[in-house]
Amino acid sequence: MTKLYAIYGASGCGRSLMPVARQQLAREQDPSEIVFIDDAQTAITTVNAHRAMNYASFLAEPAAQKQVLIAIANSQVREKIANRLEADGIQLWSVMADNVVLMDDAQIAAGAALSPFVTITSNIKIGKCFHANLYSYVEHDCVIGDFVTFAPGVKCNGNIHIQDHAYIGAGAMIKQGTPEQPLVIGRGAIVGMGAVVTKSVPAGVTVVGNPARIVESR
To answer: Which of 3, 21, 67, 191 could cross-link to 32 by cystine, CB 3.0-4.6 Å?
Structure first.
């Protein structure tokens, strides 16, 4: 059975994840091709030695099985693409670097992108299309929703609940919660670069600073 894998997005995020995807197929001894999908493509070209094509061309490619990793930082766009893939019967692909650390009972839904030096510890549940960039970690007893993004170096400590579409900026640190009272990052919230989050963050707001505070609209 022929397989075809794709990284959806040929910009920086996708180009960074392509070597991770190649490592994974080598680890699995899978000789299948990986291509880029980029909706700006009008013809099949080459990006970093991989074929790049638009979505219609990808659909037309002959393969018995197709799987796609969505390498789009914008979580709303990621969800739209995931829904389109599902409607077309194409599986979400999870990609994990060789040196990612996974401990006990880490449940990660399809479509995850785990970059080099990421650690996912024990008793964790993560929703679909999770992005964890370089040197991020998730400590014990965390629950993470769908389409959540960690920029590089995020420190997510134990007993934290992060709801769908939250974005955690580079180097941010989230204080540990407790089993009785997890610290919650609300749906669609944005935690700014380098922020130190010491208490729960409401849905849809942006917090910055140390300690992190809500950015007031002007």
So the answer is: 3
